[in-house]
Amino acid sequence: MITVLEPSAHCVYQRDCEGAADIPFAVRISSEFGGTIEARLLAEDGEAIGRAIVNREGTLSTGIREETLVTARLERVSVGTREGIWIAGGFERVPTGSYRMELFVRDGEVERESLCVEAVHVGDLWVLAGQSNMEGCGKLVGVEQPEDGICCYYMGDRWGIAEEPLHWFNESLDPVHWRVPEEELGTTVVCERRNRSIGAGLGLAFAKEVRRHEGVPVGLIVCAYGGSSMADWGPVRMDESGSTLYGALLRRVRKLGGRVKGCLWYQGEAEANERDAPLYAERLRTWVASLREDLRDSALPFVYAQLSTVHFMDANSSWWNAVQEEQRLAEEALAPAAMVPTVDATLSDIIHVGTESMKEIGRRMAWQALRIAYGRQAYETGPRPGVMRWNEERTLLRLEIEGAHGKLHDSDRVYGFSVEADDVPVPVKAAVSQDGRSIELRFEEPVSAVGLLRHGAGFNPTVNVADSKGIPLPVFGPLEI
């Protein structure tokens, strides 16, 4: 009997800068035989592009037309072990694409057994990390549908087609993710698989949008954990890998070869308080720097979300807005990085983004990944506050908007802006300029003192400034005017 140890169906191997990756194979045969084992690698059209034939003495031969041959290698043949015969090798420099691997056991001309591993991909791996809005807490209604070539490395260290929900904590090999005591894992997993109705996230929409533009298979490595703080994500010693979020992330990435295309991050809700908000920016910079160092990629692309709205009744939203502003300012310090605004999202409960908005945020993250990781010049950052200019009377302030796709949505009444001068609110009306490139803020009386401008202040602001792709102006402020 033949058992395939590697590759797994629906796995994705991270390609290098030249668009190629090695695809390993490892098989075990449970009984003695005197023939050969053949591994074939076939493209989607059925053309065999690589072949390895191994006999029991450990001799390797290769074939197929020279112009299409992918070089095979043999690493180990163990004959006569109690488990049978072990063979490990691989195909080198396999181009970007989707393949299947066929394995045959033969005694002379007699084929004893065969096996096929479908959907083995060379493409790009993206890490999904953060807290519950990266985990996905949308209702499982109207979810993004699965697609060939979009795969997920689930928390049980298994590959599969990516389908909602992506995160299954109690199936993780790392105890840090378990939500119940170890002795309750079995019954809890069965119950969750039968009854779960929440868990739609952004990852699948992200991957599908990247694949639509780049034509490359995408694998998602899911690592998020609801309620986690920056302290919970702190870099740790590798001997603590199973008991810490960061260690679990590194263990899983290294198990897959140690290289990824980039990281998606949605976190910060846990930092929106008096104790942690002042430390957020430095903690985020440290975390990203540690990830890049540990993955040996100083230019690892980092795409992250700005906090969305929340239905809190607390009157003091200052710490929530403070984290949002630190996230806005972090793009340059974290480069190559991109922030995705989410202030226009609808929620599925008091704090979690709903399913439709999750899909939209996933696409926005993909557009930014296309810009910073794939070099697609057609994509901008999305609207950002730029230069501000007063008229001579200081009754009209023109705020230039940078990074927008096309013009801003036409609106003669713009919501979300607020101004203070000497700690007193100043009445202001805002509108999109005629050229669609700026916001005009009009005041009833001249603003003589230095003022503070905010956009999207509060827990649940009404905002409507967006560019032609529907990307909103992020929460920002206070900015001096």
UniProtKB/TrEMBL annotation:
<feature type="domain" description="Sialate O-acetylesterase">
    <location>
        <begin position="123"/>
        <end position="370"/>
    </location>
</feature>
<dbReference type="InterPro" id="IPR036514">
    <property type="entry name" value="SGNH_hydro_sf"/>
</dbReference>
<protein>
    <submittedName>
        <fullName>Sialate O-acetylesterase</fullName>
    </submittedName>
</protein>
<dbReference type="InterPro" id="IPR052940">
    <property type="entry name" value="Carb_Esterase_6"/>
</dbReference>
<dbReference type="InterPro" id="IPR005181">
    <property type="entry name" value="SASA"/>
</dbReference>
<keyword id="KW-0378">Hydrolase</keyword>
<dbReference type="Pfam" id="PF03629">
    <property type="entry name" value="SASA"/>
</dbReference>
<dbReference type="GO" id="GO:0016787">
    <property type="term" value="F:hydrolase activity"/>
</dbReference>
